[in-house]
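FAQ: What does a ligand-bound record look like?

Like this one, built around guanosine-5'-triphosphate:
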Amino acid sequence: MDTHPDTLTQLARPHRKAVLVALLWITILAGILFGVLNASKGALALSVVEWSMSLYSALLLLAVRQTHHLERWILAYIFPFFTAMMIAIATPTATVTVFGWVLLIPLVSHLLLGRRIGLGISLFFIGVALVIFLNRFDVSDAVMDPRSLANMVILTACITVFSHVYEVSRERSEIELLRMAQTDFLTGLPNRSRIKVFFEREKSRASREQQPLSLLVMDLDYFKSVNDRFGHEAGDRALVFFADLLRQRLRATDLAGRLGGEEFGVILVNTSINTAVQVADDLRQALEDADLQQDGQPIPLSMSVGVAELGVDGNNLQDLLAAADQRLYEAKDNGRNQVVPAPVSCLDPSLTH
Ligand SMILES: Nc1nc2c(ncn2[C@@H]2O[C@H](COP(=O)(O)OP(=O)(O)OP(=O)(O)O)[C@@H](O)[C@H]2O)c(=O)[nH]1
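The answer part, i.e. the structure of the complex:
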């Protein structure tokens, strides 16, 4: 299943972007408002910080609308925003109510940066706010009353814990939905969508490390008659049986998936076409030799396979699938239960079945 951190970050992007845009608007408006209020009370330095924050947020808003690097802009917002908040609470003329803004830190950090970085940044800035608080107020101040302190501490802890728990469970639900969306229900194998994600990642790796990559497209032969003769349930069992055979026989680094119906695909990483043909033929032989029975009767299974190689037959999944499919139908036309690789001139002739 594809729970690569990049995939999860990508999934979270639309809602993080929506939260960031909302926050930027709030910061622009709040900055203007508080700038005016503080200027009218003579706290001009604070007003300048607030107006600068508004201007900065307006610029970020323009950048965020078209960016492909949302995480960078989130950090470019969070650090100055939280730092301005720390300056505001450290200002001797600011009222104690300004500490209320600290409650936003865990909420905003988790919504924008997820559970890990969100928690780290929350704890850091809440710690800084605590140090500022202890430096600003004296034991004799009313705000240092144990009940007031308990209120503030418990409220901050609650919001931090709730934000974190929410983010952890949101991420879990997202992983589960992703797993369901990328898995074939019957066989438990990856479906086309997961095959595509895997292919894109392995294609980049193959070109970086200058390694070959091959694709097999396999189709069970005369599967309609398996269903007709033994029943649809037996057909389902045969598909699950074949999926298990693929799981057992392939390397952990390869990926077998169900393309649809009785058609399956395998991506063989670091594998040239010659080796891929050998692997395909071993699988074909294993299926032919397999002993699957229904009511004491053997279910005859065989498959036809088309093989294609990255770079030779195309540079994207669509082209490789088309090339392998074409060879698969050649295998069907030639009598089934065989592997058809790239044109024979590309191959070691002893490998063709
Ligand atoms: N039991 C079961 N059958 C399926 C499933 N998906 C597709 N099939 C059946 O697979 C059969 C495919 O039939 P065809 O496309 O005619 O192919 P075939 O009989 O395998 O013949 P060739 O591919 O030409 O060798 C159809 O009867 C489908 O109903 C499934 O999930 N379960």
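Follow-up question: can I read anything off the structure? Yes, for example: The pocket of guanosine-5'-triphosphate is lined by residues 186, 219-224, 227, 232, 235-236, 239, 261-262, 332, 336 (CB under 6 Å).
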